[in-house]
Amino acid sequence: MNSETELAPAVKSILEAARERSGPDGRVSIEARSLPAAIERAAAAGRDPVIAEVKPTSPTAEGTRDDDPAELARAMVEGGAAGISVLTEPTHFDGSPDALTRVREAVDVPVVRKDFVLEQSQLDVVEADLVLLIARFVDDLAGLLEAARERGFQALVEVHDRDELETALEAGATIIGINNRDLARLEVDLETFESVAPHVPEAVTLIAESGVSAPADVRRMREAGADALLIGSAIMDHGAGETDVTANTQRLTQATAER
């Protein structure tokens, strides 16, 4: 794991909480739905491939939403989402493994478990199609990636810069997310994706994460090489009341078509 000296206090707190959470004694076995195939289907249907995120809140959100997660996920898929991401981190995001289970039962698209997984036992908390592994926070990325695959998971490996990208590629990652949010100041800059994406091999499924809030952002990331986009706050619209999640999703999945 890289040094934590440049992490924002909120990120340090998240990591501390993650270290205290252990996994169950049992081991999961997954028959995963393919995210690359779902992305291809969305693109073939003329949609911008979006992984919509069920995220009750976050340290950077301006409010919370307590909607039923399964209903939110169904509304996102109705709006054209190619996949769903579900927060399972309980302390800072109000997520839960139960929410992910309910979402996966409610939709037929791939479901990503978004959490701060640091060790192998934490993989066994809940069944999902993909598990997020954050390169900067994992000591043995290759080992954790192999353990995830042994259970049947696909792995979405998140990076923030060229060095982390090289670590991910050397570990054997085939699905990579470039996060536009800086971990020191929690600021978002879409140029992060644009600077790292050209160095990603064509065979890798590439996802743009964070900071996509408008159709113009979708088009920008797609033009920079994103195969798909992971979008949370712009769809959940924290603090804005009972917004139309289906409409929010559709607005972003049709960004290129409506240009």
Structural descriptors:
alpha/beta, eight-stranded parallel barrel, 11 helices, 8 strands, TIM Barrel, 259 residues, 15% strand, single chain
The N- and C-terminal alpha carbons lie at a distance of: 42 Å
Largest sheet, described in full? 8 strands, parallel, barrel
Order of strands, main sheet, comes to 1-2-3-4-5-6-7-8
Instruction: Give the fraction of residues assigned to helices.
Output: 25-40%
| Annotation, overall tally of beta strands | 8
Give the amount of beta strand, in percent.
15-25%
What number is the mean pLDDT? 91
Spell out the helices and strands N to C.
Answer: HHEHEHHEEHEHEHEHEHH
Report the radius of gyration as a whole number of Å: 17 Å
Pfam families: IGPS
Catalytic activity: 1-(2-carboxyphenylamino)-1-deoxy-D-ribulose 5-phosphate + H(+) = (1S,2R)-1-C-(indol-3-yl)glycerol 3-phosphate + CO2 + H2O
Enzyme class: lyase
Pathway: Amino-acid biosynthesis; L-tryptophan biosynthesis; L-tryptophan from chorismate: step 4/5
Describe the 3D structure:
The chain has 259 residues and is an alpha/beta fold. It has one domain (9-21, 30-253): Aldolase class I (TIM Barrel, Alpha-Beta Barrel). Helices cover 36% and strands 15% of the residues. It has 11 helices and 8 strands. Helix 8 links the parallel strand 6 and strand 7 (205-209). Helix 3 crosses helix 5 and helix 6 packs across helix 7. The protein is globular, with a radius of gyration of 17 Å.
